[in-house]
Structure formats: structure tokens, C-alpha cells
Amino acid sequence: MPHRLVLAFCLWVSPLLAEDWPRLLGQRLNATSSESGLLTRIPSNGPPVRWDKAIGAGYSAPSIAQGRLVLFHRQGNQELTEAWDAKTGTPIWKHTQPSAYRDPYGYNNGPRCTPLVHDNRVFTFGAEGLLSCLDAETGKELWQRNTAGEFEIPGAFFGVGSTPLMEGGKLLVMVGGQPDATVIALDPKTGKTLWQSVGEKNWTGQPMLGWPGERTVQWRRWEKTASYASLIASEIHGRRVVHALTRQGLAVLNPQDGQVLFSRWFRARVDDSVNAMTPLVIGNDVLISSAYYRSGSVLLRGSPGATNFTEVWSGLGLEMHWSQPIRVGAHLYGFSGRNEPDAVLRCVEYETGTVAWERSERWPPHSAEQPPVFGRGSFILAEGRLLALGEGGLLGLFQPNPGRCEELGRWQVPSLHYPCWAGPVLSGGLLYLRSENRLVCLDLRATANPGGLKP
Q1: What is the arithmetic mean of pLDDT over 279-291?
Q2: Residues 6 or more apart from 388 whose CB is under 8 A from it?
Q3: String of DSSP letters for 37-49
Q4: What Rg value do the Cα atoms of the chain yield, rounded?
Q5: In terms of C-beta density within 10 A (0-12 exposed, 13-18 middle, 19 or more buried), how is residue 401 classed?
Q6: Burial of 240 (C-beta count, 10 Å sphere; 0-12/13-18/19+)
Q7: Which end of the chain is least crowded, N or C, by CB within 10 Å?
Q8: Residues 393, 411 contacting (CB under 8 angstroms)
């Protein structure tokens, strides 16, 4: 075969390491990707747009598996789960279920949880707590659980927002039930409850760390227990566990029977606050963070057996709202701040929590147009670079550098606008970005971006 033809073939099949993104935060639950052959700079006119769709309301990110994109959103009085061809946006199937949810704070009324695609099934968790299992090929409903009706669940601040997790053949869901059903495990084939855990039994008497005095938890049955952080599984010194950052704090569980191995209080002192960042697990460490009322972050290091975690550091170097920071080398990179006016992009030393540098992402006051900053944002790490989506629809690319902020280009996606709170999704060289009412597919392959290659 001639050399030119071989080269053309190699470029045509790039990226060679395409992978699915079947759940919140991707394959590894930390917004990292093994894909290659991606652009190294953002062209001034942006990457090619493969397709762009008007969609219903919600903050749910899409999930991608076996060439199908699954989106959970709301139109009118229905929550829709739709499957499309990931490359073309062509519809494949649609499932609908009624929804009467109204956000008490005036945010949109769509679902917050990202679909989970596993073993040819799709699991969705609606804003009112309707848990559904669908056939991934056809969209046929296989079973459903109305968690709001079946469990004693105090009213949530912003609806249901913790995405379920598949672990050890069990579907784990943070339903927020009183008194001891904050997290439940279900048989994914039937929806039958296998165990329930976390609540009054493990929290009563726990020290309320960071609160004034020497207070301990006195359990109240009307207290909310679910958070907006999603469940995550890992191995701590070889032991498989699940980390649940609940309304009260972190609970580390045995996924087989729900036994609480460890609990640590982590909550802002005022009632109008939430935990929303999914714990970041690196090796035997767990990082938890909140942006409410100077909660900051805590890095915990697990001991053998996962029954004890010691504090490595705590502080305000990172105050993550709903997105995770990304660790590259000895540093963390993340958008710190509760609201868009106070957001900063920070690089923080992993072992100490010390801020290495920061760049303000504050929105200009009284701006009538999309601000030229990221505000709060979400990252994906791929090929050693950080892809960023700001909450106003600004796409950026950064080279991680502990010495300074090194931006490799930015582009305002024309059809996106504030708020873009769903994290970006990368699969097969294509990047999927969502606002409240649009979903955009961009081609990030280097072969499709001659303007995005280094000279």
C-alpha cells in the first residue's frame, strides 16, 4: 500500500481510542477520557458543528453507549428519555412519563440526573423521584419505582439531583428516605429493594465538625438527607466501597449490604445550602467540597479496611459547587465559587490545598451580552489537556501548568447561553454540550480541525 494511502487511512480512523461515555462523569467517574487524535488548539471560528438541536428543559447531561446518545429532558408536562444516533442526531426511540414538578426557586422544571446506560438498559431518575428502567435498544419500559411515594422523603430544595450508580450488580440510588434510607440498593433487572442504609443510625451522636461548640448530631425526622452529589465507587486499600456525600456529610458504604463503614459530618452551617460536587476519589484519598458559606474542601485519606479516614487538609483553596476539579500531576484544577459573580479558576496543590495561582472568572456587572469569561465551569481531561465549558456556553482549552494559567483558545458556542450546568461529554472524537434548551455536537478530531493544530 502506498505511504500516502497508509497515512490517509490512519488519519481517517483516528481517534483510535474512542470510548463510550455511558454515565455521569464518564467511564472512570472523574471526567477523564482516554481518547486521542483531538485538536490541540481551538480555531478562532470554533470546531465544526456536526449537529445542533432544540431540546426540552433540564440539567441532565447526555450519556453515550454503542453509538446511541441518550438524553433525559422535559417538554410540557412530560419527562422524555430519547435515544438518538450519536453521530447524526437521528432519532431512534422515545419514552415519556408524566411530570408535574415545579422548582420552588424558579429554576427550570426538567430532570437533573444523567441517564445511566448499563448492560443494554437505561436508568433514569426524574425530578420528582420517579426511577425508571428502559430497554436500551427499544426504549420499552421494563420497571419503575415511585421513590417519593414509597419512602418517607422530606421535600428537596431543587428536586431530585443525585444520579444512580451501578456497582457490584446492584443499582444504588440516593433517594433521601427517613430515617435510614438515604441510599438504597435495587436489583437492576426487577427493581426490587435489596438494602437501604444511611441516616439516623449512623449520624446520631456524630460530631458536627466545623460547627460552633462541641455539638453532636441530634437526628430529626423532617431533615433532608439526600444531596445533589452523585454516588461513586472505588477501592480503598483493595476494599471495594461506595462514597455517598449526603446532605449531612460523607458516608462510606459496603456496596454488598449497605453497611456504613465510616461517616464524617460535612455541611454548611445554614439550612439554605447543599452538597453538590460528586466526591473526587484518587487512590485511597477522597476529596469533598462545597461552595456554600465557607464550607471549602476536605481531603481525607483512607486506612486499610476503609473504616477510618484521616484529614490531610481542609480549607478554602477550592470551593466547588457542582463540578469536580481535575487532578493533573501534583495539582488540582477547578472553577471555584458558588455563583458566577464570584467564580475563579484555580490551581491548587493536591497535598496541601495551597493555591498555586488563580484567575478571576467574574462576570462584568450589568452586562447585556454573554460575558467573555467562563464563570463557573466544568472540565474534561483528554490527551493531557483540559477542555472547559463555562456556564455561559464558552468553550475553552487549557494546558495544565502549575506555574501559570495557560489557555489554548476559546470560542463562544453560538447557540448556547447561560446556564450551561451539565458537564461536557466526549465520545468518538465528538464533544456534546448542553444548555437549558439546546444540545450541540462538535467535531474535536484533529483531522476535522486544520485550524486547531499546532504549527
Answers
A1: 97
A2: 335, 374, 377, 378, 379, 394, 395, 396, 397, 398
A3: SB-SS--TT-S-E
A4: 21
A5: middle
A6: middle
A7: C
A8: no
Between strands 32-33 and 377-382, the pairing is: parallel
What is the structure's pLDDT at 10? 41
Which residues on adjacent β-strands are paired with residue 12? none
**In DSSP terms, which residues pair with 243 in a beta bridge?**
232, 252
Please answer whether residues 396 and 42 qualify as being in contact, where contact means their C-beta atoms are separated by less than 8 angstroms.
Answer: yes
Contact 394, 348 (CB under 8 A): no
What percent of the chain shows pLDDT beyond 90? Answer: 87
Q: Grid coordinates representing 317? A: 483553596
pLDDT at 448: 83
* Domain coordinates in residue numbering, the chain: 13-58+372-420+422-455
Indicate the helix (H) or strand (E) that contains 281.
strand 280-282
Pairing state between β 91-98 and 78-85: antiparallel
In the block, residue with C-alpha cell 487524535: 37
- Cβ-based neighbours of 417, under 8 Å, separated by 6 or more: 370, 392, 393, 435, 436
Three-state DSSP class for 342?
Answer: helix
Task: Assess contact for 276 and 292: CB atoms under 8 A.
Answer: no
Model pTM greater than 0.90? yes
Peptide bond into 48 cis (omega under 30): no
